[in-house]
C-alpha cells in the first residue's frame, strides 16, 4: 500500500473510530499485531496530529519503511 497525499487527506477526513479501524487494518495487513499499537480514543488525536504534520519527504520514507517491513527487513536488528 502506498500512502500519498490524497490517501493521507482521506485518512484525516475520517472520524476517530474510522481512523482507528483503518490504522489497525493497515497494521494487520502488514503483519503487525494491531493490539500492539495501542490505538484508543485517548490517543487517536495524537495520531491524527502526527499524520497531519507529515510532509512529502516523510511520506516517501514511510512508504520505504512499510515496503521493507513487508519484505521482512523490518524484523531484523
Kindly describe this structure:
With 77 residues, this protein is mostly helical. It has one domain. 61% of the residues lie in helices and 0% in strands. The mean pLDDT is 85.
Structure summary, number of beta strands: 0
Approximately how much beta-strand content do the residues carry?
under 5%
Summing up helix and strand content along with how strands pair, one would put the structural category as: mainly alpha
Q: Taking all residues together, what is the mean pLDDT?
A: 85
**Succession of helices and strands:** HHHH
The overall number of domains is: 1
The rough form would be described as: globular
Sheet with most strands: none
Considering DSSP H and I runs of 4 or more, what fraction of the residues is helical? 55-70%
Terminal-residue CA separation: 24 Å
Number of helices: 4
Low-confidence stretches: none
**Cα Rg:** 13 Å
Q: What's a concise summary of this model?
A:
With 77 residues, this protein is mostly helical. The chain has helices at 5-13, 16-29, 44-52, 56-70.
Features:
0% strand, 61% helix, 77 residues, mainly alpha
Task: Itemize the secondary structure elements and their pairings.
Blueprint: H1 5-13, H2 16-29, H3 44-52, H4 56-70
Amino acid at each position: 500500500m502506498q500512502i500519498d497525499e490524497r490517501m493521507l487527506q482521506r485518512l484525516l477526513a475520517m472520524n476517530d473510530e474510522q481512523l482507528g479501524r483503518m490504522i489497525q487494518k493497515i497494521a494487520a495487513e502488514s503483519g503487525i499485531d494491531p493490539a500492539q499499537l495501542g490505538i484508543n480514543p485517548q490517543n487517536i488525536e495524537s495520531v491524527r496530529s502526527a499524520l497531519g504534520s507529515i510532509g512529502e519527504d516523510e511520506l516517501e520514507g514511510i512508504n520505504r519503511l512499510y515496503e521493507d517491513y513487508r519484505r521482512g527487513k523490518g524484523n531484523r536488528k
